[in-house]
Amino acid sequence: MPPQKKSRSQKPRKRGKAGKPETGHRLKVLFVSLFLLGFLLVSLIVLPQLRQGLRPPPPAPPVPAAAPVTPPATPPATLFEDIRVEVESVLLRSGISLSQVDISRSGDLIRYEVQGAFPPDALLDEFSRRLPGLAADLRLEALAHEGELHIYRGEAMVYLLHFRPPPVRPTKARARAAIIMDDLGRDLETARDLLAIDLKVTFAILPGEPYAAKVATLAHREGREVMIHIPMEPQSYPATDPGGDALLIGQSPEEIRRRFQGFIERVPYAVGGNNHMGSRFTEYREGMEVVLAAMKETGLFFVDSRTTGHSLAFAEARRAGVPAAARDLFLDNEQDVEQISREIRKLAVLAGRQGQAVGICHPHAQTLEALRREAPYLKQQGIEIVPVSQLLVR
After folding, report:
1. Partners of 329 in beta bridges
2. Domain residue limits at 132
3. pLDDT tens column, 48-57
4. Going along the chain, which residue ranges are E strands?
5. Which of 85, 255, 290, 347 is the most buried (most CB within 10 A)?
6. The domain that contains 300 carries what CATH number?
């Protein structure tokens, strides 16, 4: 049977939805849209954080510059003590004992009532120069017509010294003697032993010794007079060494003055000086002129130890206007207690005959023992042992 022909009116079969090409395309578009939306969301969240992480850190705040360090001011108590030392040095160099001074305080003002003469201009000029070295705002005002010294710190007066003449009292003449102990300053034990003896021995301190300042301070506190034992060139130099800073005849006037100024600085409270060795230097007129000029400027007196029979020192001191004395006896040329005791009694006899006498000794154990032994004898004989400044020729 021949095949039948399809009817033209027959329609082709429909495919299922999954089989349509446009449906797959829509799925791809949807997937891409979701991806882009997710990427956009992630970018909005993550990118600011990434940018924050990549951004350089803010600069550190500037460190303020360190304030300049101001050195601590001198504590008031220390400064007042330093001023006191200078004030009392001026009084002692003016020949005024601290027993002639009454001290009182009102607030920050310290007042000295002084029974004694107004200090000389040379001493006051030096004092005025030294004060700013303690504190820059210190200054001195001298009112000689009123008998007063004023010390100011800034605009405030901190010290007032009022001088009035001591009352004149008739005194009975009495034999007096001075005993000078040379070569002190090597230790404190000898100084304490000497202070324990009931005699007002004058302390002559070598400025180059390690305890010079401490011995001077100790003696001053106990009311003993302090001198500089001035090292000078002997005839036997250099075989005999007077000390590292000794005054020598080959030195210039400037060097002699410089060394002597150093002696003053190393022996506080000194009111005079005598020569240590110096048998050659005390014969050297030009050198003694320099030393005595410096002593006059600072109000010091001079005692000629007379280590040579040709010494010019005492005569030059008198010519220069420096108060002076000269040694009468060495008490301990022999380091024997009995012999030293005999020499002390010779000094007493000489003082009784002349009215006064000056003896020099040294810090040997035998000398200290002889002084202890003879102290009662000197009192029994009416011999007053006084600071050597009381026996000066002025």
Report:
1. 359
2. 76-164
3. 555 555 555 5
4. 101-106, 109-115, 138-143, 148-153, 156-164, 176-184, 202-205, 226-232, 270-277, 301-304, 324-326, 329-330, 356-361, 384-385
5. 347
6. 3.20.20.370
